[in-house]
């Protein structure tokens, strides 16, 4: 299955050899419009790729030049809460590794646990807490499953993102992302717990992809776009509509950072 997807993607890329890939989270898919002469490959044409059923997730690979650099973007991801399979993104990441991707930047929409990190903010993930009770490497038979996560989030890519943020005058928070399984939003008590445990943001994705990326030897970094203050921090109830409506605001800030990152070749440094 993986070989078929790999062969098909290589054929469609027609010699384009991106070294970096981006996974676009809820409401962040607009970044693909900034790719010149995009090559679009629907997940449906790639055996093993997820059938994303979440609104706000398109489900296609879009490749081409972004800020002058060959890049591959994944618009749409599989979430654990869709089917209970934490490893649903494994075939995708294996194919990326297979085509020569060595650097991966993950993005997501998240709730802020910190009253000073408001909706519209962007947070560079420095570390995570896996609060889901599961792991995408459960069932992996080899000793390779014992992946070290001491430096899961690549120091070099993080530094490059920080430099790009600084150069463009874009505020970039840093913090710990806590993975809840979803699909419900958290309770106020869970958010108080998350804060005590050291989380800055909460969300329903990304962590399994980071674990799989490290398993496959990819260098990985991740950014959250804050769409809301987490449960109980305001009087309001949370909704997926709010996530979709608010994501483009922080998404535009993140796009500025990413454009500069690629344009200036900061990822290579
Ligand atoms: N919690 C979990 N996931 C989210 C949130 C939230 O508050 N906002 C956007 N994704």
Short description:
The protein is of the alpha/beta class and 269 residues long.
How are the elements arranged and paired?
Blueprint: H1 2-13, E1 20-24, E2 36-42, E3 60-66, E4 69-75, H2 80-83, H3 90-98, E5 103-112, E6 122-130, H4 155-167, E7 173-179, H5 188-197, E8 201-203, H6 207-215, E9 219-229, H7 240-263
Parallel strand pairs: 1-4, 1-5, 5-9, 6-7, 7-8
Antiparallel strand pairs: 2-3, 3-4, 5-8, 6-9
Helix pairs in contact: 1-3, 4-7
This protein binds hypoxanthine.
Residues 109-111, 180, 185-186, 202-204, 227-228, 230, 238, 243 line the site of hypoxanthine (HPA).
For this entry, give a set of tags.
single chain, 269 residues, alpha/beta, Rossmann fold, 5-stranded mixed beta barrel, 7 helices, 9 strands, 25% strand, binds hypoxanthine, Nucleoside_phosphorylase_d, transferase, PUNP, Purine nucleoside phosphorylase, glycosyltransferase
How would you describe what is shown here?
Its EC number is 2.4.2.1. Pathway: Purine metabolism; purine nucleoside salvage. The protein is α/β, with parallel strands linked by helices. The chain has one domain (2-268): Nucleoside phosphorylase domain (Rossmann fold, 3-Layer(aba) Sandwich). 30% of the residues lie in helices and 25% in strands. The chain is built from 7 helices and 9 strands. The protein has helices at 2-13, 80-83, 90-98, 155-167, 188-197, 207-215, 240-263; strands at 20-24, 36-42, 60-66, 69-75, 103-112, 122-130, 173-179, 201-203, 219-229. Strands 5-8-7-6-9 form a 5-stranded mixed β-barrel. Helix 4 links the parallel strand 6 (122-130) and strand 7 (173-179). Helix 4 packs across helix 7 (240-263). The radius of gyration is 17 Å and the shape is globular. The termini are far apart. Bound molecules: hypoxanthine (HPA).
């Amino acid at each position: 299955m993986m070989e078929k997807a790999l062969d098909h993607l290589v054929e469609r890329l027609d010699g384009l050899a991106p070294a970096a890939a981006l996974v676009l989270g809820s409401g962040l898919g607009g970044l693909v419009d900034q790719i010149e002469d995009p090559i679009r490959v629907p997940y449906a044409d790639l055996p093993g790729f997820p059938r994303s059923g979440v609104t706000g997730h398109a489900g296609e690979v879009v490749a081409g030049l972004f800020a002058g650099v060959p890049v591959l973007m994944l618009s749409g991801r599989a979430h654990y809460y869709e089917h209970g399979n934490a490893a649903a993104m494994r075939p995708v990441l294996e194919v990326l590794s297979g085509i020569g991707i060595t650097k991966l930047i993950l993005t997501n929409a998240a709730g802020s646990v910190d009253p000073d990190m408001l909706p519209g903010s962007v947070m560079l993930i420095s570390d995570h807490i896996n609060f889901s009770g599961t792991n995408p490497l459960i069932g992996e038979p080899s000793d390779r499953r014992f992946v070290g996560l001491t430096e899961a989030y690549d120091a070099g890519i993080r530094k490059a993102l920080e430099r790009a943020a600084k150069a463009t005058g874009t505020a970039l928070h840093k913090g710990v992302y806590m993975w809840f399984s979803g699909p419900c939003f958290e309770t106020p008590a869970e958010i108080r717990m998350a804060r005590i445990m050291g989380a800055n943001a909460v969300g329903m994705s990304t962590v399994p992809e980071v674990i799989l990326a490290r398993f496959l030897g990819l260098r990985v970094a991740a950014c959250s776009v804050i769409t809301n203050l987490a449960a109980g921090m305001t009087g309001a109830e949370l909704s997926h509509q709010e996530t979709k409506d608010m994501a483009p605001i922080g998404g535009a800030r993140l796009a500025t950072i990413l454009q500069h990152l690629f344009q200036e070749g900061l990822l290579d440094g």
